[in-house]
């Protein structure tokens, strides 16, 4: 996937990404460099579908521990670390709705 | 301005959605956390039982491990109750209760089973908590119009858990 546009649904990444924002996602950066903490990724999580979360840390086995920003976020604390093959891409551009 | 352009493109091409799940203001609810919490309670009871069967019973290591297992059991039994309470209070509406009249009694049973799981070290009590939460999950997904399946959790204690078929 070179580039893909997705609409963010939900509030677990606020204030960085809010419900209704758009993100441009690409797998290209991951071809040249491993994922690193701080990056926002889109991945497929069985039972949840396509999720967007921030990488909090990389586990010794290479799995990614992802978190949302809010206390109620459903993330690796619920479903465990994410495998590299589940990752669809990295957010390379965020298009934010004008905040009121 | 860019957002406006992307909104127009979205209407034309229907972009896929990337979900940023949470349970607070966005209306996204999931009983999975309650189910995992119930499984954790069972696992802690198993670990406590194994520890008691072990040779070393009267040293600091034993008491340290036992205290930690109890603390986690307490925490997850309470987390299970809290998650069910949030879904029942915020997501379940009057018409859902009319369609599933067992719901209030079921939630009450979960509250009681959660308390019993905290008070005792009984595996049966912990299993009862999971059974009630699994039924709650089944009803939750039925309300959402999503079929479910029962599978063994792919991790200890490997008890049966209800998953949505998405």
Which helices and strands, and how do they pair?
The complex is a heterodimer of chains A (100) and B (166).
Chain A: E1 4-9, E2 22-26, H1 28-32, E3 40-45, E4 49-58, E5 64-67, H2 76-79, E6 87-95
Chain B: H1 2-13, E1 16-19, H2 32-53, H3 60-91, H4 94-99, H5 103-119, H6 123-143, E2 148-152, E3 160-164
Antiparallel strand pairs in B: 2-3
Helix pairs in contact in B: 2-3, 2-6, 3-5, 5-6
Reading off the top of the CATH hierarchy, the class of chain A is best stated as Mainly Beta
Structural class of chain A: mainly beta
Tell me the Rg of chain A in angstroms.
Answer: 13 Å
CATH topology heading of chain A: Umud Fragment, subunit A
Distance between the termini of chain A: 34 Å
The top level CATH class name of chain B: Mainly Alpha
Tell me the β content of chain A: 35-45%
Most extensive interface: A-B, 38 and 25 residues
Which stretches of chain B are poorly predicted, pLDDT < 50 over at least 5 residues?
Answer: none
Q: Helical residue percent of chain B?
A: 55-70%
Question: Got a strand count of chain A?
Answer: 6
Query: How would you describe the shape of chain B?
Result: elongated
CATH architecture of chain B: Up-down Bundle
Number of helices of chain B: 6
Report the total helices of chain A: 2
Strand order of the largest sheet of chain B: 2-3
Structural description of this entry:
The complex is a heterodimer of chains A (100) and B (166). With 100 residues, chain A is mainly beta. Chain A has one domain (4-95): Ribbon (Umud Fragment, subunit A). Chain A has two helices and six strands; from the N terminus they run E-E-H-E-E-E-H-E. In chain A, strands 1-2-6-3-4-5 form a six-stranded antiparallel sheet. Chain A is globular and about 40 Å long. With 166 residues, chain B is mostly helical. Chain B has a single domain (30-164), classed as Up-down Bundle (Four Helix Bundle (Hemerythrin (Met), subunit A)). Chain B has six helices and three strands. Chain B has helices at residues 2-13, 32-53, 60-91, 94-99, 103-119, 123-143; strands at 16-19, 148-152, 160-164. In chain B, strands 2-3 form a two-stranded antiparallel ribbon. In chain B, helix 2 runs antiparallel to helix 3. Chain B starts with a helix and ends with a strand. In chain B, 30% of the residues are buried. The model of chain B has no long low-confidence stretch (mean pLDDT 91). The A-B interface holds A 4-14, 17, 19, 21-23, 25, 42, 47-53, 68, 70-75, 78-79, 95-98 and B 2-3, 6, 9-10, 15-26, 28, 30, 32-33, 36, 163-164, 166. Strand 1 of chain A pairs parallel with strand 1 of chain B.
């Amino acid at each position: 996937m070179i580039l893909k546009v997705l609409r963010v649904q939900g509030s677990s990444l606020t204030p960085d990404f809010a419900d209704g924002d758009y993100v441009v996602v690409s797998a290209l950066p991951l071809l040249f460099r491993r994922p690193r903490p701080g990056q926002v990724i889109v991945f497929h999580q069985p039972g949840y579908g396509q999720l967007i979360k921030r990488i909090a840390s990389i586990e010794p086995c290479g799995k990614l521990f992802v978190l949302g920003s809010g206390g109620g976020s459903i993330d690796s604390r619920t479903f465990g670390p994410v495998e590299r093959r589940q990752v669809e891409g990295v957010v390379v551009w965020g298009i934010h709705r004008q905040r009121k | 301005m860019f957002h406006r352009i992307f909104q127009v493109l979205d209407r034309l091409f229907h972009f896929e959605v990337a979900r940023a799940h949470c349970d607070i203001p966005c209306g996204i609810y999931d009983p999975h956390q309650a189910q995992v919490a119930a499984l954790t309670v069972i696992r802690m009871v198993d670990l406590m039982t194994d520890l008691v069967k072990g040779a070393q019973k009267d040293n600091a290591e034993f008491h340290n491990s036992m205290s930690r297992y109890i603390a986690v059991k307490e925490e997850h039994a309470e987390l299970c109750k809290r998650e069910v309470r949030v879904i029942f209070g915020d997501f379940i509406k009057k018409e859902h209760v009319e369609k599933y009249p067992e719901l209030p009694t079921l939630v009450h049973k979960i509250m009681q089973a959660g308390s019993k799981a905290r008070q005792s070290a009984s595996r049966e009590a912990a299993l009862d908590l999971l059974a009630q939460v699994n039924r709650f999950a089944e009803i939750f997904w039925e309300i959402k119009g999503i079929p479910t399946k029962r599978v063994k959790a792919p991790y200890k204690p490997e008890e049966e858990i209800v998953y949505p078929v998405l």
